[in-house]
Amino acid sequence: MRRPFRSIANNEAEEEEGIDVTPMLDVVFIMLIFFIVTASFVKESGIDVNRPEASTAQPKDRANILVGIDPDGDVWINRRNVELNSVRANIERLHAENPQGSVVIQADEEAATRYLVAVMDAAREAGVYNVSIAAQEP
């Protein structure tokens, strides 16, 4: 026995009452991937330092290589404690990854000046002449 046309139309209408959200989920997932890939992540030297105050301090946007010097004279790059004689090699490697980047030295106010000068020399020997020293605004 055949069903009347009207009952078939009612069954199809009952099945299509819900909204199909699958395409919307696909778009949201693709947007999430896009934002994760294009996001710029904050880089840190690996230690917290008490930076000295300077009235002429200016924010630096394009600091790609951060070097930290703690009060004991330990040098930190990318959350790793590195020896003073290997700072040049690390800066060369990081500068090769991003040639437009600059070096920012985050020296603690209690750190000896000789470590600061040694890191600056290593950066310049590595071919990076855009070297800055981090300071706080008063």
Automatic annotation (TrEMBL):
<dbReference type="GO" id="GO:0005886">
    <property type="term" value="C:plasma membrane"/>
</dbReference>
<dbReference type="InterPro" id="IPR003400">
    <property type="entry name" value="ExbD"/>
</dbReference>
<protein>
    <submittedName>
        <fullName>Biopolymer transporter ExbD</fullName>
    </submittedName>
</protein>
<dbReference type="Pfam" id="PF02472">
    <property type="entry name" value="ExbD"/>
</dbReference>
<dbReference type="GO" id="GO:0022857">
    <property type="term" value="F:transmembrane transporter activity"/>
</dbReference>
<keyword id="KW-1133">Transmembrane helix</keyword>
<keyword id="KW-0812">Transmembrane</keyword>
<keyword id="KW-1003">Cell membrane</keyword>
<keyword id="KW-0653">Protein transport</keyword>
<keyword id="KW-0472">Membrane</keyword>
<dbReference type="GO" id="GO:0015031">
    <property type="term" value="P:protein transport"/>
</dbReference>
<comment type="similarity">
    <text>Belongs to the ExbD/TolR family.</text>
</comment>
<keyword id="KW-0813">Transport</keyword>
